[in-house]
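FORM 12-B: Structure-to-Sequence Request
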């Protein structure tokens, strides 16, 4: 196997959702001669995956897809990854097959995969640290993992050649591989991903309770609330499984958080201005210093803010100018922070260069104020 040479072979992907679908697209882009076979329990997802060209073939059951595979990737919710591993353990797989997963937790999965390693197969836990609140193969895209960290949890006895081979298969993700211990993985992702998801959901619950008596709350929930709760729109099945898998870490983080909230409540009760100022300043400083230009704890979206008059058609006006200049955008939305005056249009781009070109383009065609927010 030579570095940089496209691989041929059979890749079997179990779970054709956002992540499985995106991995399929990345592998196909880098290794066009590879055959991608997909399996999903939801036949609508498999049909859609085939229709969108995300997979070359659909397997009706795990056995047929796994039999001749050179690479098997499991991208179902994490508790189902355990079930899939159990099933694979009972099958006779190809000599030299590499098995990996994309689950958001690692300790339980790696433990379960011992049966594969006992049978002489290579299993390496994996976790591409990028994603979205969207689910399903319809949201899959080949650029999802670009510049993100791709965490791998090989064992001390993992064959280094097999590990290299896995990285070559995944080269099209354009992610940065990082090896971590499963327990370290679950603690870190608990802090920067899993616990924040619980908090986001709890904030939505709080607003929902208020909305029962005060209907205005949903209309007023604009910028800040939307930013901090976006991830509460993620798949409930996925987060139920992640929470159960990372229960111990989450329970510890709940305790830490409750202690911290008690401290903040005390500062407030005592009207301790200095302590409150310090609390917010230290958070701002640490957050501002985080590496926003790489995908990681904070995903890199290159947002451009455009101060536009709030009239119907303004979005198509702006997208028209961008299309004229062949500038790709990834998202566009109105941020409703002000009543009956101008609106802020937020346009997201994949790269800083696209954002710069867009800013020049909008300045050229209009007299709307623009800002990158940095
Ligand atoms: N969404 C993210 O941001 C993100 C990022 C990195 C890793 N992950 C992890 O990747 C995995 C997949 O997440 P996703 O966002 O693609 O979810 P998704 O809901 O988009 O896709 C999961 C797919 O798995 C299928 N599935 C469920 N049970 C199955 C079974 N028994 N057999 C076969 N298929 C089954 C579902 O039908 C669905 O199509 C999860 O383990 C998640 O923790 C998610
Ligand atoms: O951007 C989002 O919507 C995500 O929730 C992505 C996110 C995260 O928490 O960072 C979610 C779970 C994955 O395991 C990795 C990435």
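FORM 12-B RESPONSE
SEQUENCE OUT:
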């Amino acid at each position: 196997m030579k570095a940089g040479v496209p691989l041929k072979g059979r890749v079997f992907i179990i779970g054709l959702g956002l992540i499985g679908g995106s991995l399929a697209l990345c592998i196909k882009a880098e290794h066009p001669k590879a055959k991608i076979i997909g399996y999903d329990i939801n036949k609508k997802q498999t049909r859609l995956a085939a229709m969108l060209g995300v997979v070359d073939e659909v397997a009706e059951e795990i056995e047929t897809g796994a039999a001749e595979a050179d690479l098997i990737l499991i991208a179902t919710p994490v508790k189902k990854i355990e079930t899939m591993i159990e099933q694979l353990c009972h099958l006779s797989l190809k000599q030299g097959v590499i098995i990996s997963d994309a689950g958001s937790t690692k300790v339980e999965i790696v433990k379960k995969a011992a049966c594969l390693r006992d049978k002489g197969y290579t299993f390496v836990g994996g976790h591409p640290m990028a994603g979205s609140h969207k689910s399903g193969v319809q949201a899959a895209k080949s650029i999802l993992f670009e510049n993100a960290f791709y965490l791998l949890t090989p064992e001390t006895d993992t064959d280094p050649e097999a590990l290299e081979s896995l990285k070559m298969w995944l080269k099209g993700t354009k992610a940065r591989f990082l090896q971590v211990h499963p327990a370290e993985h679950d603690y870190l992702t608990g802090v920067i991903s899993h616990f924040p998801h619980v908090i986001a959901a709890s904030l939505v619950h709080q607003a929902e309770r208020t909305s029962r008596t005060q209907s205005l709350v949903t209309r007023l929930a604009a910028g800040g609330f939307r930013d901090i709760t976006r991830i509460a729109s993620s798949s409930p099945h996925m987060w139920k499984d992640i929470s159960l898998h990372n229960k111990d870490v989450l329970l510890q983080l709940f305790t830490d958080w409750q202690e911290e909230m008690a401290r903040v409540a005390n500062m407030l009760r005592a009207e301790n201005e200095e302590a409150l100022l310090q609390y917010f300043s230290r958070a701002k400083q640490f957050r501002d210093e985080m590496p926003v230009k790489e995908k990681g704890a904070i995903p890199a979206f290159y947002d451009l803010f455009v101060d536009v008059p709030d009239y119907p058609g303004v979005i198509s006006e702006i997208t028209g100018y961008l299309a004229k200049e062949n500038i790709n955008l990834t998202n566009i939305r109105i941020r409703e922070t002000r009543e009956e005056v101008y609106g802020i249009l937020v346009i997201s781009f994949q790269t800083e260069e696209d954002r710069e070109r867009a800013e020049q383009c909008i300045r050229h065609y209009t007299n709307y104020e623009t800002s990158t927010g940095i």
